[in-house]
Amino acid sequence: VTDTTTTAVHFVPDNLPTHIRHYIGGRFVDSVSGKTFDVLDPVSNRTYATAAAGQQEDIDLAVAAATEAFENGPWPRMKARERSRILGRIADAIEAQDARLAELETFDTGLPITQALGQANRAAENFRFFADLIVAQADDTYKVPGSQINYVNRKPVGVAGLITPWNTPFMLESWKLAPALASGCTVVLKPAEFTPLSASLWAGIFAAAGLPDGVFNLVNGIGEEAGDALVKHPGVPLISFTGETTTGQTIYRNCAANLKGMSMELGGKSPAIVFADADLEAAIDSTLFGVFSLNGERCTAGSRILVERTVYEDFCARYAARARNIVVGDPHDPKTEVGALVHPEHYAKVMSYVEIGKTEGRLLAGGGRPAHLAEGNYVSPTVFADVPPTARIFQEEIFGPVVSITPFDTDAEALALANGVKYGLAAYLWTSNLTRAHTFAQAIEAGMVWLNSHNVRDLRTPFGGVKASGLGHEGGYRSIDFYTDQQAVHITL
Ligand code: NAD
Q1: In this model, does residue 9 exceed pLDDT 90?
Q2: 325 C-alpha to center of ligand 1: Å?
Q3: Where do runs of H (alpha helix) occur along 293-308?
Q4: pLDDT in tens, 299-342
Q5: Residue 453 Cα to ligand 1 middle (Å)
Q6: Do the beta carbons of residue 488 and residue 472 sit within 8 Å?
Q7: Which residues contact 96 (CB under 8 A, 6 or more apart)?
Q8: Protein residue closest via CA to atom 42 of ligand 1
Q9: Which of 107, 165, 336, 424 could pair with 466 as two cysteines, CB 3.0-4.6 Å apart?
Q10: Does the beta carbon of 112 lie inside 6 Å of ligand 1?
Q11: Atom 35 of ligand 1 has which residue's CA nearest to it?
């Protein structure tokens, strides 16, 4: 379907729901209160659906269903192999409908369709990975000869509260759902209110794969209402949260009353450091991808590029020329490289940073709405050079297609610039000097470092940030550790 009432071309998927409901105890339901909120698409900014707005009583019902499934249902008691088979079927089902999933995700979030497809595949891979991991899992056993045996009895923690953001929503939900379910927990998911569409597919995928009713529960709603009620619910012993640092701080405080387990994946302002001895062409390719893929709405975006002064002007000129050629347009068009930002509120925030940037740096590319797109949340890929470390666009997470470039003269200066922000999620280093690469990697304050590369990550590795970018690391067995308690059992021989 092509909607021609807006000036831009706008693809609208077939069979869009007009109303999105919760899923509690194996049934789609509305909020007890009957409250709803509007869901917009980011190209027309018109309401295409309403969604049930979860309140305390909806969270109570979802937690009750998850508790019943945990205490009396088969899921936590199944053999790892049985759970693994169901998780494998979930991965197959995601793959089988990746085109539809990507289409819906693109419509709801504004992500370019080619990139949304990649996210669907990552979501399937998350399930496959944790399905494999639990059958290979070994726990510690210690024997003191002639004296005692000690072993670990690993148990799922209980009802896991999962709270997720609007960027790559389906994939990020899978990053929590897969290990939580693999561990034997039951869950209540509260997806982001800007983008509830793709989350509504989980219920059908899980039911068809044979996940027992009540194991997966979904409550839509506003963060301060449904999210807050989930965080404060005494029947939910742990919260896995991905979102903004300030929201993470609020949740941290609210978890304190019940001393909940927490995993927090928060914001970032990650540096990409380009030394003069780097393969400049590869560094330019990668740093363009780093901040302009996923519309720049990416937690690990390399949004600050630090460039050694001897190649600085050359780098800036080549980078800006490439940025000016990035194709901005309808997210459903396979040629589109940057789509529409998720929501008018977020668009206004990003545009305000573009204006701030004009007073803080030298504008090399972009700087506002693309001339050919009169409507929709479109921002031209925007490049500022000569940005000092005191600038707000250097320090603050923008979460859009906006990048700052800053020169440096020495390794020590580069390190000080790289570490001179409150965040510490990712860092990217471009150099052909192996010693420098590793020395630098070890000194940088970031949870994840990519050397002459980006975006490749084995699912066994730790994922997470330091400083204001997060608390705790997930990935591989770390995720299983988060969703399980390890009871130590001792016996004297
Ligand atoms: P957000 O913090 O506004 O919202 C995230 C989720 O928290 C939403 O579901 C929201 O409804 C809920 N929420 C809001 N207030 C709440 C409250 N008081 N109690 C409970 N829940 C509440 O974040 P966002 O704008 O949706 O996402 C963008 C942010 O997420 C960026 O800062 C980005 O860097 C970060 N992020 C981090 C990672 C990572 O892995 N580190 C990954 C993706 C996104």
Answers
A1: no
A2: 31
A3: none
A4: 999 999 999 999 999 999 999 999 999 999 999 999 999 999 99
A5: 27
A6: no
A7: none
A8: 299
A9: 424
A10: no
A11: 243
Choose the residue to mutate in 108, 175, 299 for probing ligand 1, maximizing ligand atoms within 8 Å of C-beta.
Answer: 299
pLDDT tens digits, residue range 174-209?
999 999 999 999 999 999 999 999 999 999 999 999
Tokens 């049934």 correspond to what residue?
27
Whether pTM exceeds 0.95: yes
- For 100, 121, 168, 195, 217, the CA distances from 95, given in Å and listed in that order, are 10, 6, 16, 21, 22
Residue 220: how many CB atoms within 10 A of its CB? 27
Read off the tokens for 412.
């020590």
* Ligand 1 contacts CB of residue 223 (under 6 A): yes
How far is Cα 55 from Cα 355, in angstroms, rounded to an integer?
38
Copy the structure tokens of residue 126.
């998350």
Please give the number of the atom of ligand 1 that sits closest to the Cα of 267: 34
CA angle 101, 182, 105 (to 5 degrees): 15
User: How many CA atoms within 13 Å lie on the side-chain side of 278?
Assistant: 31
Cα angle for residues 409, 411, 413 (degrees, 5° grid): 60
- Atom 8 of ligand 1 has which residue's CA nearest to it? 192
Q: Report pLDDT for 8.
A: 53
Is 248 a pocket residue for ligand 1 (Cβ < 6 Å)?
no
Q: How far is the CA of 164 from the centre of ligand 1 (A)?
A: 6
Q: What is the DSSP string of 211-268?
A: PPTTSEEE----IIIIIHHHHH-TT--EEEEES-HHHHHHHHHHHHTTT-EEEEE---
Query: Tell me, what's the ipTM?
Result: 0.97
Which amino acids are annotated catalytic? Answer: 265
